[in-house]
Amino acid sequence: MPTPADLVFRNGPVHTLGPARTPATAVAVRDGLIIAVGRDAEVRPLVGAATEVVDLAGRALLPGFQDAHVHPVLAGVTMIQCDLHDVRDADEALAAVRAYAEANPEVKWIAGGGWSMEWFSGGTPSRHLLDAVVADRPVHLINQDGHGAWVNTKALEMCGIDADTPDPVDGRIEREADGTPQGTLHEGASGLVGRHVPETTADAMLRALQAGQRRMHSVGVTAWQDAMVGPEVQGAYLAAAESGLLTARVVGALWWDRERGEEQVPELLARRGGAGRFRATSVKIMQDGVAENFTAAMTSPYLDGCGCRTGNQGLSFLDPERLRAHVTRLDAEGFQVHVHAVGDRAAREALDAFEAARAANGMNDHRHHIAHLQVVHPGDVPRFAALGITANIQPLWAAHEPQMDELTIPFLGRERAGWQYPFGDLVRAGASLAAGSDWPVSSPNPFWGIHVAVNRTVPGGSQAVFLPEQRLGLTTALAAYTIGTARVNHLDTRTGTIEEGKLADLVVTDRDPCSIPAGELAETSVLATYVEGRRVHTDPAF
């Protein structure tokens, strides 16, 4: 008789996402590993008296989802501060700020975030709005996309920011007619106030990580790459890993300080490594901003509200020559490099940097990737496959919604607007895809991102299809959120598919996503999430 399994799933579709795509209805797990995948009758002999048996009852079993670009600790910090992610407009945001300030009279700074640009005229909220609800304490609220801050007059005064304060080289202060700061600080300008906000304590940081992890597990995510890991965030991950609180598998992308140069490499090398399920083996470089505030780096100028060319082509945070040198050095030191590139110039500069590294150091298995890729020049699409660079996509953004239709498309122009989120073109050109959410910028729910990748429409929103030729097939989209990201994180030999010998990182969904209309994908929910066969999330409906 075979040794019984600890856990068996049966009586439901099993989507292995493995290369064979062999149909299966049952999976057996022992000691955290998958020991059998097949039909119910084939797995039945592994059921013993002590085996936990999960009757899928037609519900689906999939590999645990993996997020290639996310900020769970940052999200968790916001969740335990003034959190605006669940409000719907400017009035609700102001009411939430007032309520938080009244409930926390001892807090010296009102900090948090989650506001959205489309709630405000021109995408730039005023300090006067915040003054009306909190005038006696400084307020600093990060934009939902992380690329700006909304502050009140008290914060500006305390930090000495006035009409004479110049814009930093990597940001812009929104101003009133007389030059007085208006209350919105873009990109690097956010740091003029942000650096004065009291640091989050180590205990609060650990609580934030736990809150973020619970949310990630609730949507079926069992592994991720944290795209912004400073020393404090790394400390939280290490503490959680060493104590057993970290149940997810995490790769930390160490933050590259763009105000410094290669003198920081020894510091990054000293921080490389990890404990338990956490490894810091990647370095994140921010090459540009975002299109909505005109800081994404473009190959040609933005348009103005009348459709005329401006003199602004966005910001390259690192000079392209410096970027090439830094990427080449990091590549030589054995780091994976993770680049933020939203505009087509930033994407090209990143590709040029990776090409320079390949020329200097030769090919390797570091699995570099470029995230976001909102605008990619068609001439650069084939370079991803040629250079072996993974396209790290955030599919949820590739749809018609107010930020796209009101704050982006009019200022890009018709031709360039058609180059946005070219997922289909990348796949047809042979590029490897990984997928992520960038939460808390947008929802961490993989099924929402998968819905948009497949339909190019917003779940529950406008049904106008955004660039339909760039849609992905469902299997391709699922693979990007599983084996694609596992590969980027060097986890593909142990996770990402349901195969014998791999870790039992698994999710049970309330329906079979492969058997429903594509327009209903976003309605799919996760009922249970398992890491190494241990349940880390259970929906009450399970």
Description of the molecule:
- The two termini are about 30 Å apart.
- The strands form 4 sheets. Strands 6, 13, 14, 15, 16, 17, 18, 19 and 20 form a 9-stranded mixed beta sheet that branches. A 6-stranded mixed beta sheet has the order 7-8-9-10-12-11, sandwiched between helices.
- It is of the alpha/beta class and about 550 residues long.
- α7 (about 200-220) crosses α8 (about 230-245) and α17 (about 445-455) crosses α18 (about 475-490).
- Helices cover about 30% and strands about 20% of the residues.
- The longest helix is centred in the middle third of the chain and has 18 residues, at about 345-360.
- The protein has 18 helices and 23 strands.
- The mean pLDDT is about 95.
What are the defining features of this structure?
single chain; 542 residues; alpha/beta; 9-stranded mixed beta sheet; 23 strands
Brief overview:
The chain is an alpha/beta fold.
Low-confidence stretches: none
> Strand share of the residues?
15-25%
Sheet having the most strands: 9 strands, mixed
In one word, what is the shape? globular
Treating each run of at least 4 consecutive H or I residues as one helix, how many helices?
Answer: 18
Q: Structural class of the helix and strand makeup?
A: alpha/beta
Global Rg: 23 Å
Helix content: 25-40%
Distance between the termini: 32 Å
**What is the number of beta strands?**
23
